[in-house]
Write a structure and sequence with these properties.
Elements lengths: L1 H7 L19 H4 L13
Length: 44
């Protein structure tokens, strides 16, 4: 969903989507570039 939203909003060239585990730390090469992190929780 996030990828299609980025395409629809013409943001694909400005953002990088990453998928990972919330409880694991970011790789050190990404920590300096993390301006905004969002979580999409699924509620069932």
């Amino acid at each position: 969903i996030a990828k299609s939203n980025a395409v629809n909003l013409n943001l694909s060239d400005r953002i990088k989507l990453l998928k990972g585990n919330l409880f694991e730390p970011l790789p050190s090469n990404l920590k300096a570039f993390s301006h905004l992190m969002m979580l999409n929780n699924y509620f069932f």
